[in-house]
């Protein structure tokens, strides 16, 4: 069952879908509990596949039917294209720079085109098949070495490093981390810390008036982790530029640097770093979760 929660903000509609009655100020927040997806599924049995909830000051419409969700996103995709921006995402202007959070405007379409043609293209994936096999071989050799020496294997971290190096070789033509290295521990900790922070329930998402206070310190923590990760990637870009100008390696970084030099106003240095950061974190974390 697909559950899509769309934030409507302060906009008032003449007629809202049915939904459970909430408490003053906090609305229906307590009814979601610690497993909101299960709570929403249970509420949908009473109020139907389309229902309204009040989460703090935010009015929310919930689609708990795959058929209804498909109709909404097919027929009204433009109306619902803009995403709910959580306060933790606003750190480092991520909401303005990251393709995952930008409004569907011309700049967003430009970044999407880059990702489609340079990162996720079938040609690119097929070209890197041998590379992925070599990284899996590295993982196998690491597990064998640990077995022979009697060391325990940190499954989550080993899977994370394998995925990270597979992606970093595609992007940078280099391993970004090594098993049992300080660098791998640092990067693993930064990614894990960032995802832990942004997944926390944040009062400011439900009560925007508290945003300037950042009472739980979530945006500040998110900014700390993102700045650390961006600094690592920025150093890699600087090294490439200093060593061979535009880069002699036939990899994604070389392509992105060329795009930056050809049209700096449209694809800035910060855009370049954010695209790299988004793909490194998203792909590495996805593979790490599969290994857990």
UniProtKB/TrEMBL annotation:
GO molecular function: heme binding; iron ion binding; monooxygenase activity; oxidoreductase activity, acting on paired donors, with incorporation or reduction of molecular oxygen
InterPro entries: Cyt_P450 (IPR001128), Cyt_P450_sf (IPR036396)
Family: Belongs to the cytochrome P450 family.
UniProt xrefs under PANTHER family: CYTOCHROME P450, FAMILY 76, SUBFAMILY C, POLYPEPTIDE 5-RELATED (PTHR47950:SF44)
Name recorded for this polypeptide: Cytochrome P450
């Amino acid at each position: 069952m697909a559950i899509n929660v769309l934030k409507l903000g302060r906009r008032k509609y003449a007629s809202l879908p049915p939904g459970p009655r909430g408490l003053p100020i906090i609305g229906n927040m307590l009814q979601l509990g610690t497993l909101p997806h299960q709570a929403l599924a249970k509420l949908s049995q009473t109020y139907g596949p389309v229902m309204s909830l009040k989460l703090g000051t935010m009015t929310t419409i919930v689609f708990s039917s795959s058929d209804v969700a498909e109709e909404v996103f097919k027929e009204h995709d433009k109306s619902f294209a803009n995403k709910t921006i959580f306060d933790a995402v606003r750190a480092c202007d991520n909401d303005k720079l990251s393709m995952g959070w930008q409004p569907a405007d011309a700049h967003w379409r430009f970044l999407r085109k880059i990702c489609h043609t340079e990162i996720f293209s079938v040609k690119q994936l097929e070209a890197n098949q041998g590379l992925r096999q070599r990284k899996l071989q590295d993982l196998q050799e690491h597990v064998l070495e640990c077995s022979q020496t009697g060391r325990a294997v940190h499954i989550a971290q080993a899977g994370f490093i394998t995925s990270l190096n597979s992606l970093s070789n595609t992007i940078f033509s280099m391993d970004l981390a090594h098993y049992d290295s300080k660098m791998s521990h640092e990067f693993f900790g930064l990614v894990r810390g960032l995802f832990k922070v942004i997944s926390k329930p944040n009062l400011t998402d439900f009560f925007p008036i508290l945003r300037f206070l950042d009472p739980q310190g979530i945006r500040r923590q998110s900014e700390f982790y993102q700045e650390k990760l961006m600094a690592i990637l920025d150093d890699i870009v600087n090294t490439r530029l200093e060593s061979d100008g535009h880069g002699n390696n036939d990899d994604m970084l070389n392509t992105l640097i060329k795009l930056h030099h050809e049209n700096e106003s449209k694809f800035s240095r910060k855009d370049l770093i954010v695209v790299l950061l988004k793909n490194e974190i998203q792909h590495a974390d996805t593979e790490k979760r599969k290994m857990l």
